[in-house]
Write a structure and sequence with these properties.
By secondary structure, this protein is of the alpha+beta class. Helices cover about 35% and strands about 25% of the residues. The protein is built from 14 helices and 19 strands. The strands form four sheets. It has an eight-stranded antiparallel beta sheet. A five-stranded antiparallel beta sheet has the order 1-2-3-4-5.
């Protein structure tokens, strides 16, 4: 244990030393000279801000830049979130085009004067990427009609910031930031055709991201639904920039969009609401669907299984289940230990849900949201099916993941079945969890079988099977204590488990981004003493 702690501390010391050296170097004149190698080049392509409407929250009311307190804009004491919003300049997308160009350009000029030399806060990779995209996309206000002196200053600043991105992108671990950075670098290359290094290098990095981060089914290797949507949005934006600037669209971009789109259709358009697996929380993609329609993107996917998710549906009911392996360490920051967890949607309303993901990594709720107890599945001895380890102060990654041993999906008109088993409890408890869920559409009845298959039954083990409910759902026990009634708005359902105790427990729901509510869950608890333990449960509409 002492040796292990020493190794961890030594590793942390090395990382801190490396970070300190990096910060020292980037704040030096050597680094400033490196990224200041710019050219006098021409602003050739003028991208439409409309192309970014999938990632920009446009407000009905447009603001004039004169309405802002511009004298104090850079002097206020801002929290981290406010600082990012101010310095990424995405607020420019909310400006009325009747705003003063002179004033807008004065704000940019002021920023350049104060931040011409690299600083680790204002030149944060994500902030810098978005700032480049915003400045170039809002050229009607930021660039048009400006004086030659400002024009030259603006062009050199964009290049300098893009040079910083080129220097940093190869060291990034966050794939989302890499994609946004690639987008900024590629846009710089399309706008300034005189220097082809930005376009060439940006596309090369994009190829690497495709190869390293997206599986052959067109799904992020993280299995994170949020990432899937972000990837698709930025790849489409990049494609539309190529199209609008009358450049040839690389075939691999079209191909990647096709496969990402297939995955998006499977996981979102087939369901039309969020399923809360592996980093996901509720977000409305209706606006994005409209964006796709406007730009002529149509995706369809009638598969029943993709990327470790099974989704079965008819007009009334949707059954989804996680039957996939946990991702590798490099892609596991958002993974939740929910192997064989499931959700049921009835008439557009969640009957059974997972608890959701708490996105703020500084909060203890982030760690809690990854636990098996907050997913609608079985846990053993209050342990999660995966072990996690700290990557840094704010990120946890999977140390020991799960492997799906077997799985099967059956979809017929009057009979559905999803089954699988995983080894998440094999190492600690010599136990395999196997789950089978059947659905009979005519009877509106679910029959579930959870099995514990033990390689060593010399010790008794405790298990809990949780079925999480939406906060608005009402539940009560029947008089004989053998059933639980579930009231889902105008629907009634009955939960049965004859051979084990069933209880209604209080829990926590994290389905709305960075917020929590009290909820309830149905819990089956018991002690496994034998080589094989089978727990049968039913959910029937009444």
């Amino acid at each position: 244990m002492i040796t292990k702690n020493f190794a961890v501390n030594l590793s942390q010391y090395y990382l801190n030393l490396k970070l300190s050296f990096k910060q020292f170097y980037q704040n030096s004149n050597f680094y400033d000279k490196k990224i200041s190698k710019t050219k006098d080049i021409t602003f050739d392509y003028k991208p439409s801000p409309y192309l970014l409407s999938s990632i920009v929250k446009y407000q009905k009311k447009k603001y004039k830049i004169e309405d802002f307190a511009l004298e104090t804009i850079w002097q206020n004491n801002l929290n981290n979130k406010e600082f990012k919003k101010l310095n990424n300049f995405f607020w420019f997308f909310s400006l009325d085009l009747k705003s003063s160009k002179k004033t807008t350009q004065a704000v940019i000029n002021n920023w350049i004067n104060k931040n011409n030399h690299y600083n680790n806060k204002g030149w944060d990779f994500d902030i810098t990427s978005k700032r480049i995209i915003s400045w170039l996309s809002n050229h009607q206000l930021t660039y048009e009609g400006c004086e030659e002196e400002f024009k030259k200053k603006f062009n050199h600043s964009i290049q300098k910031q893009a040079n910083h991105l080129l220097n940093e992108i190869k060291n990034l671990s966050e794939v989302e930031n890499k994609i946004i950075g690639c987008a900024a670098i590629i846009l710089t290359g399309l706008v300034y055709k005189d220097d082809n290094k930005y376009l060439t290098t940006g596309l090369n990095f994009l190829k690497k991201i495709i190869k390293s981060s997206i599986n052959n089914q067109g799904f992020p290797k993280s299995r994170d639904i949020k990432q899937l949507v972000l990837y698709l949005k930025y790849f489409i934006i990049i494609r539309e920039w190529f199209k609008e600037s009358q450049n040839t669209i690389p075939e691999y971009i079209d191909e990647t969009i096709y496969y990402l789109g297939q995955s998006y259709a499977f996981i979102w358009q087939n369901i039309n609401q969020d399923i809360l697996f592996n980093g996901n929380y509720i977000s409305n993609n209706d606006d994005f669907d409209q964006y796709l329609k406007r730009f002529g993107y149509v995706f369809k996917n009638e598969n029943k299984e993709l990327a470790g998710y099974a989704v079965l549906k008819n007009k009334k009911v949707i059954l989804s289940m996680d039957i996939g392996n946990s991702p590798s360490e490099n892609f596991s920051k958002f993974y939740q230990s929910g192997a064989l967890s499931f959700e049921v949607i009835s008439s557009g309303k969640k009957l059974i849900t997972n608890s959701g993901y708490f996105a703020n990594k500084q909060s203890r709720l982030n760690k809690l949201s990854k636990s098996t107890a907050l997913q609608s599945t079985l846990s053993v001895e209050d342990h999660s099916s995966c072990d996690y380890k700290k990557l840094d102060k704010s990120n946890q990654i999977v140390k020991k993941g799960i492997h799906i041993i077997k799985k099967n999906v059956v979809f017929e008109k009057n009979y559905w079945k999803i089954s699988g088993s995983h080894d998440g409890y094999l190492r600690k408890f010599k136990t395999i969890h196997e789950r089978e869920i059947e659905f009979y559409p005519e009877q509106m009845k679910f029959i579930g079988l959870d099995k514990l298959l033990r390689k060593d039954n010399s010790k008794h083990i405790k298990f809990d099977i949780r079925f999480h409910l939406n906060p608005a759902t009402k539940v009560m026990k029947t008089q004989d204590n053998k059933s639980i009634l579930i009231e889902l708005e105008d629907e009634g359902w009955k939960f049965n488990c004859d051979n084990f105790d069933i209880n209604i427990d209080n829990g926590i729901y994290l389905g709305i981004k960075n917020s929590y509510k009290e909820n309830q869950n149905i819990c089956i608890s018991g002690i496994c003493q034998d080589e094989t333990q089978t727990i049968k449960w039913e959910i029937t509409k009444i």
